[in-house]
Amino acid sequence: MTLLFGVLTFVFTMLGGLFALKFKDKLHLILGFSAGAVIGVMFFDLLPESISLTSNYYSTSTTTSLIAVGFILFMILDRTFTIHAHGAEDHCDNQNHKGFHGALALCVHSFFDGLGIGLAFKVSTAVGAVVAVAVLVHDFSDGINTINYIIKNKGKSKTAFAWLIADAFAPVIGIICAMFFTVSDKVLGLILAIFCGFFLYIGASDLLPESHHQHPKALTTIMTILGIVVLYFATKFAG
Q1: DSSP state of 87
Q2: Concatenated DSSP letters for 186-232?
Q3: Residues in CB range of 59: below 8 A, 6 or more apart
Q4: Which residue from 52, 2, 46 is spatially nearest to 231, judged by alpha carbons?
Q5: Total structural domains in the chain?
Q6: C-alpha 141 chain-centroid distance
Q7: Would you say residue 6 lies in a domain?
């Protein structure tokens, strides 16, 4: 059962990424939706889960403080590779670095998604199934976001597809790893809190402004709201 859900995470992620590649000429609209989806995942999935896992060990303020830490860490990482851009060629190289780190963050998050599925199935089949469905409902968006993050930062389609495959395999690897060790709730919760900060930066400070850049703001705003709403109902339905 666990491995079956691993295969499904791969399929859903690939479908989302292929969708983004197919309609990359509408990238600003997909970026708008992706920004909402990333922010929605943070607010409706990662944040509640991190607070739930750490509630018996740490105060809510401690957990939410780690969100700020994650935000700052990703901001420093992002600006380290973009602040010294001067010429067009340097700018292109720095944009590629930015896309690399954004896609890597999404892949690591997907790994922990798979890890969460595997650990949940160790509790019970019912709990594992609920967690797995919650992951699947936003895996499609994960695939879109991975493609978008590479392409919008001047990466090639071939590079974007390679990262899509990496992101699709990440939860499968997480599920397999969960078979061999156990991570305590408090540790997993803290890790998720840090990734909340990562996703808040990616969604609000990068994808969202880029989706509005030189494009009609009304339609991209609607797409962003749609992304948030879709992820809200998806997580509520899965939960």
Answers
A1: S
A2: HHHHHHHHHHHHHHHIIIIIIIHHHHHTTS-HHHHHHHHHHHHHHHH
A3: none
A4: 46
A5: 1
A6: 8
A7: yes
Per-residue pLDDT of the chain (239 residues; tens, 9 = 90+): 777 888 888 998 898 888 878 877 777 788 788 888 889 888 988 898 889 889 999 999 999 999 999 999 888 877 775 544 334 444 445 555 556 777 787 888 788 888 878 877 876 677 677 677 667 766 777 788 788 778 777 777 888 889 899 989 999 999 999 888 777 878 888 988 988 898 898 888 877 887 776 667 788 899 999 989 988 887 777 65
The span from the CA of 57 to the CA of 61, in Å, is: 12
For helices 88-123 and 125-151, what crossing angle results, to 10°?
A: 180
At 80, phi and psi to the nearest 5?
A: -60, -35
Rounded Cα distance between 157 and 54, Å, is: 40
The structure tokens listed for 21 are 């590649």
Contact 201, 43 (CB under 8 A): no
Backbone angles phi and psi of 87, in degrees to 5: -85, 175
* Angstrom distance (rounded) from CA 64 to CA 147: 29
| 24 part of a folded domain | no
Tell me the chain's radius of gyration from C-alpha atoms: 17
Burial zone of 45 (CB within 10 Å; 0-12 exposed, 13-18 middle, 19+ buried)? buried
The alpha-helical segments, DSSP class H, found in the chain are: 2-22, 27-41, 47-54, 60-80, 88-123, 125-151, 157-178, 185-200, 208-212, 217-238
